Amino acid sequence: MSVTGWVRKIFRGQKITEPAKAYDQWATGYDKQPGNLMLDLDEGITRDFLEKIDLSGKIMVDIGCGTGRHWNKILAKNPQRLIGYDVSAGMLDKLKEKFPGAETLLLEGNHLAGMKDASVDFIISTLAVAHIEQINHAFEEWNRVLKPGGEVFITDYHPDALAKGGQRTFKHDGKLIAVRNYIHPIATIRLLTGQLGWKETRFTEKSIDDSVRGYYEAQNALAVFEKFRGTRIIYGIHLKK
Predict the structure, then answer these.
(1) Largest CA distance in the chain
(2) So what's the pLDDT on residue 22?
C-alpha cells in the first residue's frame, strides 16, 4: 500500500476493484515492492510467529496465499503438506513459478475445495481477511476443516486503519487501483471465533509511529504521517481450536 493511500480524498470517485481482478493485475509486480510498509510489517509479525511454532509433519493451509510470500519460511519448518488457496489465478501462477509442484487451488467463495472435515492442523491467512465479505461463513468453513486442537494464525490491515480511509492500493498501467476491503472489527473477530470455541493465545498490533516515519519520508508524505500518527495499522492473532 502506498502511504498516500491513507488520504481518503485520493479515492473520491475512484472505482474500487474486486480482489480477484485486482490481484490478477497486481501479480506481475507484487513481489517487487521494496519499501512497502504493510508488506514489511506483515513480514516481521509473521516471521516472529513462525519462529515460535512447530510445523513438522503438519498439514497446513494458506488462505490468500498470493505469490507465496511466506512459503520459504513455512517450508523450512518441514510441514507434511502445504496447500495454498487464493482468489487470483494470476497470483497462483506466480507462486508456482517460485515453487514448482506447489499444491494450489483457486478459491471460489469460502469453500476450501479438496479439504475433508477435520483434516488440517494449521491455517494461516496473511493480509487477506478484510477481502472476505462474509467472514462468519469463512470462519465456519475453516472450523470445518480444522482438526481438534488445530491452530489459526491471521494478520491483516487493522480495521481502525480501514475505518479511517486506509486502502490497499497499487499502480497498474499508470492508474492507482484500490482493492475492495470490508471492515471486520477486532471485537467481531473475537466474537465469531469465540463462538466456534477457538481460544486466543496471542495478539499483537502495530501503530503508525516514529518507527515507520521513514516510509512516509521516502514518499514526501510526512503530512499524512502526522495525520495518522497513532493509528493502529496491522494486527496478528493466533488461535487454537
Answers:
(1) 50
(2) 92
Domains of the chain from N-terminus onward: 3-240 (3.40.50.150)
Measured in whole angstroms, the distance separating CA 77 from the mean position of its chain's CA atoms is 20
User: How far apart are the C-alpha atoms of 101 and 138, rounded to whole Å?
Assistant: 27
Q: pLDDT tens digits for 39-65?
A: 999 999 999 999 999 999 999 999 999
| Helical residues (DSSP H) of the chain, grouped into ranges | 19-26, 37-50, 71-75, 89-98, 135-145, 159-163, 186-195, 213-218, 222-228
Q: How far apart are CA 77 and CA 88, in angstroms?
A: 26
DSSP letter assigned to residue 185: -
- CA pair distance 220, 213, nearest whole angstrom: 11
Q: What is the pLDDT of residue 14?
A: 58
Total residues belonging to the chain: 241
Whose cell is 513480514? That residue is 43
Instruction: Count the alpha carbons within 13 Å of 6 in the hemisphere toward its beta carbon.
Output: 24
pLDDT for position 168: 84
Spatial distance between the Cα atoms of 175 and 159, rounded to a whole number of angstroms: 25
Integer Cα distance of 43 and 40 in angstroms: 5
Q: Which three cell numbers stand for residue 178?
A: 484500490
73-102, pLDDT tens digit by residue? Answer: 999 999 999 999 999 999 999 999 999 999
Q: How far apart are CA 134 and CA 208, in angstroms?
A: 28
| DSSP count for the chain of H helices, then E strands | 9, 10
pLDDT value of residue 59: 98
With a cut of 70, list the residues of the chain below it in pLDDT.
Answer: 1-14
